[in-house]
Predict the structure.
Amino acid sequence: MNAQTQVPSARGSVLLLSTDVALVAAMDPHFTGFGLDLAVFDTPAQLGRRVQDQGGPGGGRPPSLLVLVDLLAFPHVEAFASLGADARAGHPARPPLVCLGQPENLRQRLASLRVGAAAWLPRDLNAADLAARAAALVGPADGVPERVLVVDDQPVSALFAARVLEQAGMIAQQVFDPLLALSAMDRFAPDLVLMDLHMPGASGIELTAVIREQERYADLPILFLSVELDPARQLDALRVGGDDFLAKPVPPQRLVACVRQRLARARHQAQVRKTAVTASRGPTGLVDRERLLARLDRLIHARARDWGLIYLEQAGDAAALHWLAGAASARAGAGALAARVGEHGVAVLVRRAAPSPLGAFAEALGQGVRVDLQAGAAAVAPAFGVGWCAVAAGGGESVTLVSRARKVARISLHRRQGRAEGYQRPSAGPHSVAAPHPVLEAITASQFHLLFQPMVPLRGTAAPCYEATLRLAMPDGELLAPGAFVPAALQAGQAPQVDRWLLATGLDALRERRVAGQPVVLFLHQSFASAADEGWVERVRDAIVARNLVQCRPVIQWQLAEVERYLDLAVRRAGQLVILGIRPCLNAVTEEESSLQVLERLPVSFVRFARSADWRLPPERLRALVHRAHARRARVIVTGVEGPEAIAPLHRAGVDLIQGPYIQPPGEAMDFDFTDGQG
C-alpha cells in the first residue's frame, strides 16, 4: 500500500498510518462524506514526511490535519510517540493524534493518552462511527474556523494566546475587562472561552458562574489559563463549570492541543445529543435525562439560588407522556431544559428570581399545558400533577432534587385540583435524628435502590470495577443518600439489615453479570455492626457459594472511622476474608498518623483516599501517601474526580483507579464503556 497523493480538500485531510486494506476501504467513503481526504501510509517515516510537507512554509493558513494511527498494525505506541510527536511538531497547527486500539488492551489506551493523543478509539467500532468521531477532531463540518474568546486583564498574555490560536487556524478575540465579557460573547458567539482566573472587577470563577447560569452557554467549553498553582483553588474553578485548567506559562503546542480537544469533545457531545433525539423521535426541545442531571449537579455545586425544577407527573400511558413532554417543552420556553426522567414524568429546569415566581411559573406552566393538551390531543390528554423544587433545596445531588420535585407532583396529581405544589424543606426533616421513624420504617421495608459507579484504571489492566451505593426511597417518593439515613440506622441498630440487603442484592447483580459472560469486580460496603457478629464471615462465604461466585468474589469495604474503633476485630475479620479469597478495601484514608497506623496493621487489597487527601496534598506528599499504600501491596483508589485536570497528576503520583462525576455518576446499570477512548 502506497501513500495516496491527493489535493487537500477545503476542510482538511486525515493521515492514516495502517496496513489494513479492509479498514481503509471501509472508512474512506465516510471521510469523503465529511469533506475530508484520506491519505494512507505504510510507515511512520512516510507519515512524518507528509506532515512536515503540509506544514512547511507558505505564508497562508496551514491545512487542517488529523493523524490517525492503527495500533493493530503498529502496536508499540511508545516507540511511535517520539517520531509522531516530532512529525506533528513540524506542522504549525500541531495536528491532533488519534490512536485506534484493541478494546481489551488497556496498556495501549493509557500509553496513547500519556504520549499526548487527543483520543483513543476502540478499533471494533463500525467504520461510520470511527470516521465520525475522528472527523470531530479536525474542525467544524462547514469549514468555518472555530472562534475562541480570550478573557484576560493582561494584554500581553491575551495577545500571546490569541496569536497562538490564530496560527492554528482559529479566530480569536480578546477581552481585557471581565465585566465586558458577556456582551462580547453575545456579539462574537465563541465556540470556546479561554479564561484567566485572577482579574480585577470579577474573577474568572465569578464570571464562569454567571456564564453557566445562562442556559444558552450551559455547554460552552470554558478553559482556565492562570498562574494559580493551588489545587484547591483550581478545583473551585472547575466546580463552577470550568472544563479544564492550564497553568501559565503554557507551551503553544499544549495550548492548541487542549483547545482542540475541548472543541472536539463539544462537537462530539452535540452530535450524540442530536442523534439521540432523532433516534427516539422525541418532541422538539427535549434533552436526554443524563444531560438534565448533569446540569442540575453543576447548579447544585455552584449553589445557584435562582434556579428551580418543575416536575409533571401524569397518569397516562407512553403515548400520553409523549404529548405531555412536547407541550411542557414548548411552554417552558427557549431558556429552559426539559427531559423525560421517569416512566410517568417530565422535568423542566428553569431560572426564576425567587421561590414565589418559581411557584407562579409552575402554576402557569401546568395550566398552559392543560390547555394545549385539551385543544390538540383530547383523545390522549392525561391527568397530571405539577410540583416544583428550588435547586437550593436539592439535598446535595440531582437524584434527591428530582425525587423531591416528583414527590410534590404526585401530591398535586392525587389532589386533582389542578394546582402546582411546592417542596418545602421541613425544619426537622423526616430523616433527622430528632424524628427518624419514617426512615426506620423505610429501612424495615427494605425500600432501597442500588446504584453503581465505575472505577477506571490509570495503570495496568483490570476487570471492570464498580462501587455499589444505596439510596433509600421514602414513602412520599423522596430518595435519600446514605449520609441522610445511615446515621439513623446505626443509632437504631438497623445497620445489619442495610448490610444484608446490600450484600444480597449486590451478589445477585454479580451473578447476573457472570451468567451473561460479563464479570465485574464489585465493591460492597459493610459496617462493623454486622462484622462484629461471629457468624458474619461464614454468612458472606455461604452467600457467595450459593450464587456460584467463587471465581467472582466481591470486594468488602470498610470505613476508616469504624476500623479505628474496632481495630483488633477488623484485623481478624480482614485476615478471615483474605483466607476466603475476598479482598478488603479501606475507605477514607488520609496522611494522618492514626490513619497510617491502621493501614500498617490491616491486610487490605485496596485503599480509597479521603477527598481531602485527593485534592489538597502537594504532589510530593500525595506520592508519599500512595507509596505507603503500595508498600502494603494495596491498590489506590481516588474518588470525586470532577475534571480531566486531575488525571495526569494522579497518574504521576501512582494512583491505580479513579472514580467520580467526570468518569460517570452513579447509575442504575453497570453500563460504563471501559473501552471508550472519549470517556
